[in-house]
Design goal:
The structure is a single chain. The chain has 7 helices and no strands. With about 190 residues, the chain is mainly α. Helix 1 packs antiparallel against helix 3, helix 3 runs parallel beside helix 6 and helix 3 crosses helix 7.
Length: about 190
């Protein structure tokens, strides 16, 4: 049934077509001659190439999303650092050690990152079927919304990167309160 033909079925179907003539000849009487003429293996090979091209385009799109996410984390971390530069310098001037500041930054990063990671793991279970029901992709392309181990690993790695992205700027603040206030009073040099 062509309606149930999926992307994973292309290679086995092409292999079955390559062995079709010998199987038919074996099933027919010895006096019968079998000839199979079809361009379906070539079409299936084109379809497989198309799937590879589409997959590489999808990979490039996901890399762009990852870069956009990293940029967003960097901007949010910078905004948080600028808003708290004076407070962090004051904590350092009053004797807070870097471990205490790292602990505060880690807890703040967890407050921001954990909800985002949980949402990133479970939101596709809602969005992918919704897109499929609209006819944009979904059912015809075999789009699924399974939460496998690869999704969880990517979410964990992204979360770890985000936590580090939030923590590192906090640890670079100096202990001089006057310099911190002067830096916050100056206009920003760039984005």
């Amino acid at each position: 049934d062509i309606g149930r033909l999926g992307i994973d079925d292309l290679a086995p179907l092409r292999g079955d077509l390559d062995g079709l003539a010998p199987r038919l000849a074996a099933a027919m009487p010895d006096s019968s001659r079998v000839a199979v003429r079809t361009r379906l293996p070539e079409r299936l090979e084109e379809a497989e190439r198309s799937v590879v091209v589409t997959g590489s385009g999808f990979t490039a799109l996901m890399a762009q999303f990852a870069l956009l996410g990293a940029y967003a984390v960097t901007l949010v971390a910078g905004i948080l650092l600028e808003r708290r530069r004076g407070q962090l310098a004051l904590l350092r001037a009053r004797g807070s050690d870097p471990r205490h500041l790292a602990s505060l930054a880690f807890r703040e990063a967890l407050l921001l990152v954990v909800p985002a990671a949980v949402t990133a793991i479970w939101l596709p279970r809602v969005i992918v079927p919704a897109i499929g029901s609209l006819g944009i992709a979904g059912g015809r392309l075999g789009a699924t919304s399974e939460t496998g181990s690869d999704v969880i690993v990517v979410a964990l790695v992204g979360s770890l990167g985000a936590v580090l992205g939030f923590m590192v700027p906090t640890l670079t603040v100096g202990a001089n309160v006057t310099e911190a206030r002067a830096a916050s009073a100056r206009p920003a040099r760039g984005t």
